[in-house]
Amino acid sequence: MPTAKLQIPTPDGQADAFAAFPDDGERHPGVLFYMDIFGIRPELERKARELAEHGYYVLVPNVFYRDGAAPLVELPEFVTREVRQEAVAQLMPLVQAQTPERVLRDAAAYLEFLTSRPEVAPGPVAAMGYCMGGGLALRTAAAHADQVAAVAAFHPGKLVSDGPDSVHRAVVPAITADVHIGHAETDMRPEAVSELNQVLDASGVRYTSEIYPGTVHGFTMSDTSAFDAAGLARHWERLLALLDGAFATRR
């Protein structure tokens, strides 16, 4: 499985990135893969390679590139609850710095880079993300509806709030891509998930939005104490079905 370390030009500098893609010499649909809070590391590289094995070019940018190249924090091979809390506290200011304006500047640069790769097939791409990356993927899909055909968000956290820039209110109505959102049981209240689903219904897009039973935030990440094997398996089923539906004729 070919992989590459890349630099993506953006209006604010160079974003380091990881890419994985099939080794058959053909062009494949592109997937913009947004990281979780812990960033590019072996766990995300494994996921990118696994997805690439199904016939996709997968690009994983370091969205914290303004603060340095990945990794920005040193993590053990397995992140315990205590280590997780310390790392999240250290990285949270970087998350908070990802304003909608900054996110959209970066998204445009990432998409331009992704679609220009010689290994990527012409046409729309997918956006996906974990943790905070789920919200970034949804914002990207809304801002680039003509370029993003499928979007997936896993344990994305707070997509519903009272603020005017809440994802469910300011972002979801503009999405035209096929959507899957996989919620951890602890991410959002059932009432908030219902409110999000009502907006998805009103937008008229094809979507699935479900709470994965018995999971906590971060359940897809096998290098953390939040990991849930059944949740990870279900995530792959939903993600691959979503992408197959959007790109079956282009792989």
Q: What sequence of helices (H) and strands (E) makes up the elements? A: EEEHEHHEHEHEHEH
Strand order of the largest sheet: 1-2-4-3-5-6-7-8
Q: Which overall shape is indicated by the principal axes computed on the Cα atoms?
A: globular
Uncertain ranges: none
Taking the sheet with the most strands, its summary is: 8 strands, mixed
CATH superfamily (homologous) name:
Alpha/Beta hydrolase fold, catalytic domain
Level-2 CATH architecture: 3-Layer(aba) Sandwich
The SS-based structural class is: alpha/beta
Descriptive overview:
By secondary structure, this protein is α/β, with parallel strands linked by helices. It has a single domain (3-247), classed as Alpha/Beta hydrolase fold, catalytic domain (Rossmann fold, 3-Layer(aba) Sandwich), CATH 3.40.50. It has helices at residues 42-52, 81-96, 100-116, 132-143, 167-171, 190-203, 229-247, and strands spanning 3-10, 13-20, 30-34, 57-61, 125-130, 148-154, 178-184, 207-212. The chain has an 8-stranded mixed beta sheet, with helices on both faces. Helix 6 (190-203) links the parallel strand 7 (178-184) and strand 8.
